[in-house]
């Protein structure tokens, strides 16, 4: 086992509605899934982490473009197992700030009917992805905030320890894991 770095994709080039209703939130989620990156470079030093690492990424447009911006000449493996969890829009009447819609959509996964099965499916996929990363280590993965958190927890269960603070949700945020 060796070092594994999980990186969240860069900033997404997608208009964010301020007070969307449900229909606008659904449209935003669809646009977000198809969007590429906003202009801007990765955090200083992030590209240097790619040196000597096996490079993996989610095939989602924002992750794919982030990977290629991070290491344009890199030999990237784009694997569907690293995709983000699907956003399930809640049924809420009226207009609400976008962060509330996002929190309600993620929170819905925790308490809705079938939530236990959904959480278990996420945990199993994260465990499988963690084994794949361990097999490819040392490696760097460009993925997504929600799934990277589940993946980090799976790595810890499989004997890794996290370096630094908890996963951030901002663009280009990164966290490294090492064998315990």
Note down, in words, how this protein is organized.
This is Broad specificity phosphatase PhoE. It comes from Rhodoblastus acidophilus. A 6-stranded mixed sheet has the order 3-2-4-1-6-5. Helix content is 40%, strand content 15%. Helix 2 links the parallel strand 2 (54-57) and strand 3 (76-78). The chain has helices at 22-34, 61-70, 98-111, 115-136, 145-157; strands at 4-8, 54-57, 76-78, 139-143, 160-163, 174-179. It has one domain (4-179): Rossmann fold, CATH 3.40.50. It has 180 residues and is of the alpha/beta class. The termini are close together. The model has no long low-confidence stretch (mean pLDDT 91).
N-end to C-end Cα span? 10 Å
Q: What pattern of helices and strands is seen along the backbone? A: EHEHEHHEHEE
CATH class, anyone?
Alpha Beta
Biggest β-sheet strands, sense, barrel: 6 strands, mixed
Helix content: 40-55%
Q: What's this entry about, in short?
A:
The protein is built from five helices and six strands; from the N terminus they run βαβαβααβαββ.
Topology:
Elements: E1 4-8, H1 22-34, E2 54-57, H2 61-70, E3 76-78, H3 98-111, H4 115-136, E4 139-143, H5 145-157, E5 160-163, E6 174-179
Parallel strand pairs: 1-4, 2-3, 2-4
Antiparallel strand pairs: 1-6, 5-6
Helix pairs in contact: 3-4, 4-5
């Amino acid at each position: 086992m060796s070092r594994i770095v999980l990186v969240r994709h860069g900033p997404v080039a997608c208009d964010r509605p301020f007070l969307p209703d449900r229909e606008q939130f659904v449209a935003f989620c669809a646009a977000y899934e198809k969007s590429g990156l906003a202009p801007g470079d990765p955090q200083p030093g992030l590209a240097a982490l790619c040196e000597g690492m096996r490079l993996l990424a989610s095939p989602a447009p924002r992750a794919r473009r982030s990977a290629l911006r991070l290491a344009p000449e890199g030999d990237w493996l784009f694997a569907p197992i690293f995709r983000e969890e699907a956003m399930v829009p809640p049924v809420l009447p009226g207009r609400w700030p976008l962060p509330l819609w996002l929190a309600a959509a993620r929170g819905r996964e925790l308490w809705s009917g079938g939530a236990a099965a959904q959480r278990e499916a996420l945990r199993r996929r994260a465990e499988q992805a963690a084994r794949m990363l361990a097999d490819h280590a040392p490696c760097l993965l460009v993925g997504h905030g929600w799934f990277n958190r589940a993946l980090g927890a799976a790595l810890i269960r499989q004997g890794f320890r996290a370096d630094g603070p908890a996963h951030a949700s901002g663009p280009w945020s990164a966290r490294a894991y090492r064998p315990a």
